[in-house]
């Protein structure tokens, strides 16, 4: 092509020779020839430098230089004509002189215009590339700096100077199944569609996200589909977004953009951008939504893979969560890191190795770091490491630097309130589901936020892969309950919460936590009990506790107490009396049978208690003495035996709980009839009786609850009718009678509920007719029901504005796996 001839320098060199001759022989053209000669002689060294640099120029710059080459070729032809012309042919020589002047102006215009822009572009490009090199060098030096304290960990730091999650790749280690499956699923998302799109690869830190992305970039099928146009860019926490935008735009389109603070051009058909077909852009280690929105190229054929610990649902079209290793893969990776072989050597304690691998939670980064930390250490050190890991403590400086500190980046990046909520998750036992209602109650009390903000924090932590939200089919719906929704958390993330919470002296910590179940309270608590503890949240995890097992500890600032235990009997801690600010009490029994509570008089001191959660407890009868919990707003009884609690000598909850606004009873199998005394708690705004399979009847006095807004009678198969008193609940806005499979009809007077906005009556198999009074429900706008009933609603007059929803069938048996 013309550009190749130009960069050979032959045209320019030959033209200079002829211009010298013209300047000597042709009077008319002498001035222009000498000027051109000077310009081109200065240009020849630059031409030679470009020729031997081996740098491939962008297409638009090559086109401009091709045009300049054409000027020189025209000049060479003109010079030949000038030299061939007779000096006596005046008119012809005047024409040649004008053409020579025009050529001189074209060359001068190029040198003073586009040529200067090329120089600026080269300077800008050099600056960007230098900055990128220095960034990479700085990152490597930082990684090296972590190991320069002379304790022998320099080699480990050097091994980790690559990308954060390059954790696979050991020869002979069995790690292929999860990686192959992940590659297959992501390839299905990016191959076969020609339009632009964004695919996310997510997971917690250290799960192998970057490894999977790099494997995709090396995959032959991917490279073939995208014609080897695959670009991998690391974004990081503090990127130079402007540089990345310009670099990506240049890589994808071949077009250069000059200047800073420019908007990334997007595809518009009227602009003739030069594209080279399909392109895959991988953005690794993305932390900010605003950064991501600026870096995604919306160009036909350009696919983007976003690798991040966070989910960005407003940008990402399809998403793949990296799966953790299988047990055999985890063992193989750990053994290679610890023993440099893929199996447990016969000289090692296999059971101890298996226990440590279990503590790593099948997380690749944890397996590699902890394995390397234990390499060549004596067995006593291994045993100590196992115990420290079970308590959420670091086992070595390498473990803290390479694992906990890396994982901590995600937490430190969170807003203050969200970070505090994340750290609260360490209050619950490992490998257990945490009811969302418990979290919401706790956060509302301890962080002074409302339920909506607390739920938003759960979603944010889920989007950042710091917890897993186990969603019920109706999770997030208006008026939906939280008690059937739960969250889970990876063990390494729980350890990270402990790592943060255990900073500082024991008595000054914001949280006082027991990392695992013990037979008794920690000894360090006993050693420090002579001084008050400043903890706002206290979490205890034990077996059966008797009066003599407790210490007299002062908790003057404690607002939340979580008691996790496994026993048939449990003596409530006497130090509750030393918690004057206690606002939330959570009792969870993980045993196989319901627990009988002792030391009930401690409840008399809970004047500020606002929330009470009882799980798998035998609810005791209300005492026959005058006492109140004047600030108690919310009571939840899950898997409890409740009949004795309602049949005591003084069952008058209205006096004892004068401000109770929410009452939940779930899976209380011995509940056959809701006591009428509850109907005298006139402050109730929400009443939920769910999954109580023995419930046969609701009290006729139910209509006395004139403040009730929400009534859930969900999954109570023995219930055959609703009392007429339901029709007196004039403030009711939500009614849930779903999965009451033997409920035969709605009350005839239900039309009196003029404020009712939503009814959920899915799987009410016996209901075949609807009361005519439903047409009077002026505020009703949403009904959820089965297809067989939906047509009844649609045929009713005056209900045209009601949205009738037929939900998909959902069968969830996850509760069978709970302990």
UniProtKB/TrEMBL annotation:
The answer to whether UniProt assigns keyword Transport to this entry is no
Q: Which GO terms describe its biological process?
A: defense response
Keywords, A to Z, come to: Plant defense, Repeat
Q: Which residues form the RPW8 domain?
A: 1-149
Which top-level group of life is the source organism from? Eukaryota
Tell me the Gene3D superfamilies matching this sequence.
Helical domain of apoptotic protease-activating factors, P-loop containing nucleotide triphosphate hydrolases, Ribonuclease Inhibitor, Winged helix-like DNA-binding domain superfamily/Winged helix DNA-binding domain
Q: Which Pfam families match?
A: LRR_14, NB-ARC, RPW8
| Gene Ontology molecular function terms on file | ADP binding
UniProt entry tagged with the keyword Secreted: no
UniProt record similarity statement: Belongs to the disease resistance NB-LRR family.
- PANTHER family per UniProt: PLANT BROAD-SPECTRUM MILDEW RESISTANCE PROTEIN RPW8, TIR-NBS TYPE DISEASE RESISTANCE PROTEIN-RELATED
Protein name in the entry: RPW8 domain-containing protein
Q: Which organism is it from?
A: Protea cynaroides
